[in-house]
Amino acid sequence: QRYGQNNVIMSDILKPPQEILESGPYVFADILDFKKLQELIVNYNIDWIIHFSALLSAIGENNVPLAMRVNIEGLHNVLELAKQYRLKIFVPSTIGAFGPDSPRDPTPDLCIQRPRTIYGVSKVHAELMGEYYYHKFGMDFRSLRFPGIISADTNPGGGTTDYAVKIFHDALKSGHFKCYLREDTMLPMMFIDDCLRSVVEFMETPESKLKMRTYNVTAMSFTPDEIVEEVRKYVPELKVTYEIDGRQAIADTWPKRFDDSNARADWGWKHTMDLPQMCKAMFEFLDPSHQKQKQRIK
Ligand code: VAH
To answer: Does the predicted interface ipTM exceed a cut of 0.90?
Structure first.
């Protein structure tokens, strides 16, 4: 809607859902195929790269060699192409770019970053490489560190924050949610609509307003306990069992709350969806028949 359907070229190595195919140009592109990316940039006269290819935290720990190729070699490809063709480039970073030595509550933009996952290491590398290309070559590199992103139209993608998406599907399908994190594990989160708007607003911000190339952004922080309580307003009979797995050790090294005051001050970032509003949006999308229990009691 914003840039014109034929001006946004979607790409992936996966076949998209039919409605995506019908929404505008969609091409096969492997982030590891430099020549193919170069051809797409020239043939489609690309001016911005929005780079989202990566193995997330949990899946990356189970396939470190592939995570290094996709998250690091893939990043090098798009940075080099953005430099060669003078493109503006967005590269997402994450709360996972911090580690146990970072302040966790809250975590500021600038502090020690010694992440303990290959995903986090690759994202710190992305931040540092992008800022190097900015200072050395004047490239318009921009990065936002995202919290866990919650969306209804995509399945969980191998992240540590996936539990906050899975709870909705489990509540509606089986009424039984198995949570792999302890009930008191607080993590920063954001609804997908706020995430996509943050990218657009950040990329459209005049460079003169940016005091940094990489900013924290967030909307809320919550624990499994807190989202369970909110989901039970729609599915009161929801059964929850805690089966802690290796992702707990990752979550225990991550920020509990994100300080995104610089993004709010420098380029006007503000979130719109909090936990109750996100749950309402998720149920409206996944199963409109599930209205909040409070309304039924009325
Ligand atoms: C993950 N959802 O859990 C991703 C994210 C906030 C972390 O980068 O790995």
So the answer is: yes
- Where in the sequence numbering do the catalytic residues fall? 119
> How many Å apart are CA 292 and CA 281, to the nearest integer?
11
Return d(Cα 18, Cα 201) in angstroms, integer.
28
> Does the pLDDT at position 112 exceed 80?
yes
Tokens of 245: 């797995």
- Which residue stretches of the chain are H helix? 18-21, 34-43, 57-61, 64-68, 74-84, 118-137, 163-173, 192-204, 224-231, 247-251, 261-266, 275-286, 293-297
Closest to 279 measured CA to CA, from 113, 185, 138, 150:
150
* Alpha-carbon span 40 to 185, nearest angstrom: 43
Can you tell me which atom of ligand 1 is nearest the CA of 58? 9
Distance CA 295, CA 234 (A): 10
pLDDT in tens, 59-75: 999 999 999 999 999 99
Q: How far apart are alpha carbons 30 and 53 in whole angstroms?
A: 9
Ligand 1, atom 7: closest residue by C-alpha: 148
Identify whether the C-beta of residue 59 lies closer than 8 Å to the C-beta of residue 66: no
The whole-angstrom separation of Cα 118 and Cα 116 is 7
Distance between Cα 56 and ligand 1 center (Å):
6
Can you give the pTM of this predicted structure? 0.96
Show the tokens assigned to 227: 């989202």
Nearest CA to ligand 1 atom 5: 148
Given a contact cutoff of 8 angstroms between Cβ atoms, the answer to whether 32 and 70 are in contact is yes
CA of 128 to the centre of ligand 1 (A): 19
